[in-house]
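Hi Prof. W.,

I finally got the Putative neutral zinc metallopeptidase prediction working! I wasn't sure whether to trim anything, so I left the full sequence exactly as given:
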Amino acid sequence: MKWQGRRKSGNLEDQRGIGNKGKLAAGGGVIAVVVILLQLFGGETGQQLAPIIEQVANSQTTQQVEQRDLTSQEVEMGNFMNAVLVDTEDVWNRLFREYNLGDYKEPKLVLFTDAVSTGCGNASAASGPFYCPADQNYIWICLSLMN
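And this is what came out:
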């Protein structure tokens, strides 16, 4: 089957080449001490508040982002993944029409290298491909090819 030079899907988001250098925590040390003290001495109310404060603290971290150009092999892999996505869109749209199942909601395919943040939380390349119902995106891991 020829996959090169075919139409492109509008549902592919390529985040490869965008990486996190690291996180900078905004007052992380102080917040960690507060969470520990609440858990130890805050009683039931403190134990209920601790996870909330910890979640707020985690949301206040900022990430340093670095960007690089994709290699020719990575570009080709992305084009191949796009061709596969187009085929799945065509097949499922046809099946939904044939069986009067309404409109097929096409998922988004997100390619990333090291880690990604989703509506379901952060995921690393080790998590493998997964679906996140919160943001209705397919997340596909596509590691950089080594030369």
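The chain has two domains: 12-22+66-142, 29-59. Does that look reasonable to you?

Thanks,
D.
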